[in-house]
Amino acid sequence: MIDPSDKKLSVRKQAKLLGINRNRLTNRQTKTTQEDSEIMKIMDRLYIESPFYGQRNLRENLRDHGYHIGRKRIRRLMRIMGIEALVPKPSTSVPAKGHEVFPYLLRKREINTVDEVWCADITYIPMAKGHAYMVAVMDWHSRAVLAWEISNTMDSAFCVRALKEALRRTGHKPKIFNTDQGSQFTGKEWISELQKQGIQISMDGRGRWMDNVFIERLWRSLKYEKLRLWSYQTISELRTLTADWIEFYNHRRKHQAHGYNTPWSVYQEAMSQAA
Question: Is residue 207 over pLDDT 60?
Answer without folding.
Answer: no
